Amino acid sequence: MPDVLKFSIPGKPEYVQMVRLAIASIAGKADFDVDAVEDIKAAVAEACKIVFCHGSLGVSDSYEILCEVEDEKIKITASDACSDGKRVDGARFCAKCPDEGNLAVPVMESLMDSVEVDFDMGGNKIITMVKNK
User: Fold this and answer.
1) CB contact at 8 A, 132 and 73
2) CATH number for the domain that contains residue 128
3) Which residue range is the domain that position 82 belongs to?
4) Which residues, in sequence order, are CB contacts of 133 under 8 Å at separation 6+?
5) Number of domains comprising the chain
6) Are 11 and 59 in contact (CB under 8 A)?
């Protein structure tokens, strides 16, 4: 049975670094090597940006990270927890958003063993990534 950790994160760019470090710490404790931990950190940052940035519509007010640690793998799910009425209009994560997001999925795919991008019934983004040892 996996160890499961769940984070609810305010949709603010300054918290992406905290999420990266938390997930890196979890991966390190799960005995992933240094290179794998660095890959996971970079992929998590990209996933966070994708799920909470709505481009010209603004950013989500919150998103969730679910981390499942098993003996031979780590599974990380980033999901937008925003409803339409909770977007912060006009706020942008990056100057070129969403154009930079077009490269995020290939970057994540190069760093992780599996990446799935999906949408929930409300149209919110969900990204699930797996890294094997």
Assistant:
1) yes
2) 3.30.565.10
3) 3-132
4) 31, 32, 36, 72, 73
5) 1
6) yes
Q: How many residues in the chain? A: 133
pLDDT, tens only, 9-33: 988 888 999 999 999 999 999 999 9
* CA-to-CA dists, residue 10 to 34, 39, 64, 116, angstroms: 28, 24, 9, 23
- pTM for this structure? 0.86
Tens digit of each residue's pLDDT (9 = 90 or more) over 75-127: 999 998 876 545 555 555 455 554 544 688 899 999 999 999 998 887 788 99
> What does the DSSP assignment read for the chain?
--EEEEEEEES-GGGHHHHHHHHHHHHHHTT--HHHHHHHHHHHHHHHHHHHB-GGG-B-SEEEEEEEE-SSEEEEEEEE---GGG-BTT--SSTTTTTTHHHHHHHHHHHSSEEEEEE-TTS-EEEEEEEE-
Of 58, 119, 117, the C-alpha closest to 85 is 58
Provide the 10 A C-beta neighbour count for residue 71: 8
Token readout for 10 is 């305010």
